[in-house]
Amino acid sequence: CQAQVTKDNTERSKQIYEWVLSGEFGKVCAEFDSAIAAHVDSTKLANAWVNLSERVGAFVKVTDIRTEKENGIDVFIHASEFEKRKVDFKWIFGLDKKLKGIFFVP
């Protein structure tokens, strides 16, 4: 029996994605745990988004949201369509409900 992901984190993953799409990177960074916050700030996140957008084009839509539970950690994958290609956005929430990882996977 696979454990269910936390409902709060399901809603939070959607909200964080909306913040990324609207360029509200400071709000995204406020969700980081201390380990990721030590390495990624809003400027780095914004630069990563700009670089990604230049390669894949404008956002079109989310095509699917998949969830996984790994050792008590909630993982959300937002499969997304952009003008030039598809990209998976992966959010990882720790036991403390803070964002432990954020990945853009073309």
Please characterize this protein's 3D structure:
- The chain has helices at residues 7-21, 25-29, 34-37, 42-56, and strands at 59-70, 73-82, 86-93, 99-105.
- The radius of gyration is 13 Å and the shape is globular.
- The chain starts with 6 loop residues before the first helix and ends with a strand.
- With 106 residues, it is an alpha+beta fold.
Fill in the keyword field for this structure.
106 residues; 4 strands; alpha+beta; 4 helices
Topology:
Elements: H1 7-21, H2 25-29, H3 34-37, H4 42-56, E1 59-70, E2 73-82, E3 86-93, E4 99-105
Antiparallel strand pairs: 1-2, 2-3, 3-4
Q: What is the percentage of strand-forming residues?
A: 25-35%
How large is the count of helical segments? 4
- N to C succession of SSEs: HHHHEEEE
Radius of gyration (Å)? 13 Å
Structural class, from secondary structure content?
Answer: alpha+beta
Count of β-strands = 4
Strand order of the main beta sheet, please? Answer: 1-2-3-4
Distance between the termini: 31 Å
Largest sheet, if any?
Answer: 4 strands, antiparallel
- For the residues shown, what is the average pLDDT? 91
Low confidence ranges: none
Proportion of residues in helical segments: 25-40%
Shape: globular
Summarize the structure.
The chain is an alpha+beta fold and 106 residues long.
